[in-house]
Structure formats: structure tokens, C-alpha cells
Amino acid sequence: MSSINLDQLDNMHFDVLREIGNIGAGNATTALSQLINTKIDMNVPKVELLEFKDISEIVGGAESLVVGILLTLEGDIDGMMMFMLEQSSAHHLVNVLLGKELDNFEDFTEMDLSALNEIGNIIAGAYLSSLSSLTNLRITASIPYMSIDMAGAILSVPAIEFGKIGDKALLIQSQFGEDETEVNGYFILIPSLESYNKILSSIGM
């Protein structure tokens, strides 16, 4: 198996990664819809392979407050996955789920934080489940670790961990709902280079 070079992905490889992103985001939308018991429309997700330093700009800048839920991946795939929510999106989900009217992270109770963690866990789980089904690879995830902090600080964790094997991550930017109920979620998939090889070879690349 030849080793993949993330700086020289051809269109066909990238189309496969984009399709993985599409299917994963679709699964996550279904899970979110069931969780809050409301039909949710999803815009076509935007899939990009980006350097870590560029990801924080997409989520509103390095100093913007976000929720980050980090999972370590094991099994046939090694790496990390992070699900990030913008502040307004996190508030909206907790408000819908618990019938509240929060608009500031400082107002979150332990119960609100627990609900937010569970939302992230379910959405991330749905994404990983679709990746596992599509590739026929066994993927297990750690207990999720949730943090509310500035985007730059949250992204520094996987950046430091994986900086030694590469500086790129697969970002799947998803919009659920519309207008005032819009939720912006960001899946950041950071497999090891060997795992990228496994993912692509498992679907015949």
C-alpha cells in the first residue's frame, strides 16, 4: 500500500473524502433530529482539507468562544475526531432540548453542560458509525471530552498531538436548520496517515 501524501491528493481521493463527509453529516442530522424531536433540514456540507491554523478562522476566529467535544479513535483507525459548535448554536440546541432561553455560556448549569456533552456525543457517534459502515473498518471512540474555550485553545490539543505526523485535518462544515434555528457544526477528522491509507483502500482506492 503506497503511503498517502495529503499535500498531493488528487480529485478522486478528495471526492471520496467529501462523500464520507456528506454521508457522515447526513447521519448526524438524522440523529440530531431524533434527539430534539424536530425535523431538521441540512445544507450540503462543505468539506475541506485544511491546516490546523486555518480551521479556527472558519469557526469565527481563534478568540471566538466555542464548544469542542474531542474523541480519541482506536481500532482499525487511529486518530482523533472533534465536533465543534459555535456559541449561538450550542445555546440553541440546549434551549430546544431542555426548554430554556440561555444566551451565555456562563448561565449553563451542570445539567445544561451534561446535555450539551450528550448532544455532541450522539452527533459524533452517528458520524463515526457511518464512517465505519462505509469503510467496513472497526472504529471505537473514547469517552468524549468536552471543553468550552476559545477556538484557538481547543484546536491546539489535536494540533500538538498530530503536528508530528502532519498539519492537516479534514473539516466537514455542516449547517442544520435555517434562519434563527440554524446550527453550525464542525466535524474535524484527524486520522493518522496510515489510517487515511486504510480508509481510502477500504473503498477500493
Looking at the overall shape, the CATH architecture is 3-Layer(aba) Sandwich
Mean pLDDT: 81
Strand content: 25-35%
Shape: globular
Count of spatially separate domains: 1
Main pleated-sheet profile: 7 strands, antiparallel
Low-confidence stretches: none
Indicate the structural class: alpha+beta
Q: What is the rounded distance between the termini?
A: 10 Å
Order of helices and strands: HEHEEHHEEHEEH
How many E strands?
A: 7
Under CATH, the topology can be stated as: Chemotaxis protein chec
What's the CATH class label?
Alpha Beta
Radius of gyration: 16 Å
Given the structure, what is the number of helices? 6
Helical amount? 40-55%
CATH homologous superfamily placement: CheC-like
Can you tell me about this structure?
By secondary structure, this protein is α+β, with helices and mostly antiparallel strands. It is 45% helix and 25% strand. The protein has six helices and seven strands, in the order H-E-H-E-E-H-H-E-E-H-E-E-H. It has helices spanning 11-36, 52-58, 87-98, 110-135, 151-162, 193-202; strands at 46-51, 65-75, 79-86, 139-141, 145-150, 168-176, 183-191. The mean pLDDT is 81. InterPro entries: CheC, CheC-like_sf, CheX-like_dom, CheZ_family_phosphatases.
Provide key terms for this protein:
205 residues; alpha+beta; Chemotaxis protein chec; seven-stranded antiparallel sheet; 6 helices; 45% helix; globular; chemotaxis; CheC-like_sf
